[in-house]
Amino acid sequence: MNVESADQARQDPEYRKALVELLYQLADDELCLGHRDSEWLGVAPDIEGDVAFSSIAQDEVGHAVFHLERLHELGEPDPDFLAFSRGPTERRNAVLVERPNGDWAQTILRHFLYDVFDDVRAESLLASSYRPLAQGMAKIRREEYYHLLHLKMWVIRLAQGGGEARRRLEQALAEVWPEVGGLFSWGEGEAELLRHGLIQCRSDELMHRWAERVKPIFREAELLWPGLPPQPELQGRSGEHTQDLAELIRTMSEVYSSDPAARW
Amino acid sequence: MNQKERHTRFMERVERGEKIEATDWMPEEYRKLLLKLIHMHGVSEIMGAFPEKEWVPKAPTLKRKLGIMAKVQDEVGHGQLLLRVAEDLAAPLGKTREDLIEDLIEGRVKFHNVFHMESPTWADAGVIGWLVDGAAIINQAALLNTSYGPYARVLKRICAEESFHMQHGENIILALAGGTKMQRRMLQEAVNRWWESLLFFFGPVEVTPAARRMLDYKIRRKTNEELRQQFLNKYVPRIRSLGLTIPDPDLFYDEREGKWHYTPPDWDKFGEIVKHNRGPKSEERLRLRRFAHEEQRWVREAMVRSRELQTV
User: Fold this and answer.
1) Predicted-complex ipTM score
2) A260 part of contact set with chain B, CB < 8 Å
3) Which Pfam family name is an example for this entry (chain B) (predicted)?
């Protein structure tokens, strides 16, 4: 059964609980990655690339805002509080996106792998029983389409560029692969999410769909497919994170928390 | 037509208010003056991204985070537009984009004094948007009717975007001015920090020979001092209306003369900063640019090779 509004969702505490859990995953992934992307401002390899990458960063943070607003409608604290005041154990992003930026090859490869995942996830949410989310996803996917094109182009060009670029790309692949698996988890509430029709496919199915999309691009880039990503050590969706996230939050909230009474 | 006749024709066009285009004949002096001005303008936009970039990760609300990200992106985008114009002027001199950026890293082109300075608090991010961009708009708006067409067109777009930046800055400032004691103190300290730099920003009072030539060629239409007076006219009342103090006890408006009197900035100190990159943040920010340009040359080289492969 479809749920048309936040008010309706709030009438069913179990439904609401599962939905809130899902929205935190979406919001926290996008906020972390958008924040990391924005660290490239002014220092990307060329000026045109700098401007383009900044648009991607803004879109990611914009998507995080969309999900945080949906959470607020469901009775969670206001979006700024959620973005700036929650501690690491309350965050539900995958560990992959909290990691600091490496070089341009690592940045591009991580973002590409994430964006394919994000698109597969968004596609699966188009049929979510929570209509405000499904509708938002349709719009978000239209923006993400351009990110994917851009990042796919970058991966292939870096691979074709040979020499140092290719060596760095291969190194980045070895580095990020062990943590990619954490993206696909729906967290501890997967069964609930499925039961309520909030999501339409299990995490292993999500990973397979993702792999089918990534493989052809690896072929085009002549990158060796390392096999399906392993289960990661830390479950970001359950609030297990690294020191990197703690530091990211500390930086992000430095001004926000400098004067609790202030409006900024 | 000999050189002299060409020059006379050129000056007649300039006098009539015609726009000179990139492919038109132009005196060597005109090309070099323009290139110097636009090159400096372009790299200043790129270096100008850094003081605010420091506050992008720390912007205190989601709205501010998105606002400052978009703003810094615009600055880099302005740098790109201006460097495109500069590239066309530099091409007959055998210079490329890579050269224009290397000139910056090697200290062969200056960038605006304000971007050598520290921005230690969130209020600085606001003051940069409000007053530094406010000063830049006055400078750039005065260049809108420059005799060089490509520059005029790019400036039109830049000015439109800059007025958004000023609103973004003003908005941050208004929140601080109407905020807690700590926020108001932070704001006043930022204004104190930036005031002298802002006065220097417009350049020396006397009209230098190069500035005189730019006025002759109608590259510029107003003197430094005219622009500085315009800035004071616009911003002194605004700053005061927020209950802020301007850190210059000698600042006053002389009704009879119709001009502001102010304590001049330390010309030597700032001259040293811009000529030799000796400001408190010059080295650190140039290091960032060097990282972007030199340490990531491998990315640009890979792009070139990959493009060659695709056209084969």
Assistant:
1) 0.96
2) no
3) PaaA_PaaC
Give the Cα separation of A245 and A2 in Å (integer): 35
pTM for the whole structure: 0.96
Q: Tokens standing for A230?
A: 């392993």
Q: Where are the alpha helices (DSSP H) in A44-162?
A: 47-73, 79-85, 104-125, 131-160
**CATH tag, B3-311:** 1.20.1260.10
Residue-range domain boundaries for chain A? 6-258
Longest CA pairwise span in chain B (Å): 73
Asked if the A6-258 domain carries CATH number 1.20.1260.10, the reply is: yes
Q: A57 CB near a chain B CB, below 8 Å?
A: yes
Residue B268 to chain A, least CA–CA distance (Å):
30
pLDDT tens per residue across span B186-208 = 999 999 999 999 999 999 999 99
What's the CA gap between A62 and A41, in Å, rounded? 17
DSSP for A174-205, written as a single string: HHHHHHHGGGS---TTHHHHHHTTS-SS-HHH
Within 8 A of A160 by CB-CB distance, chain B residues are: 302, 305-306, 309-310
Q: Which of A49, A64, A41, A47 is nearest to A143 (CA)?
A: A64
Q: Which of B136, B109, B110 lies closest to B52, judged by CA?
A: B136
The 10s digit of each residue's pLDDT in B226-285 is 999 999 999 999 999 999 999 999 999 999 999 999 999 999 999 999 999 999 999 999
Residue type at A57? A
How far apart CA B178 and CA B184 sit, in angstroms, is 7
Closest CA to A169 of A100, A211, A216, A107: A107
Question: Which residue of B62, B83, B290, B301 is the best one to mutate when testing the A interface, meaning the one whose CB has the most A CBs within 10 A?
Answer: B62
- Which one-letter DSSP state was computed for residue A146? H
In chain B, whose CA is at the least distance from the CA of A257?
B60
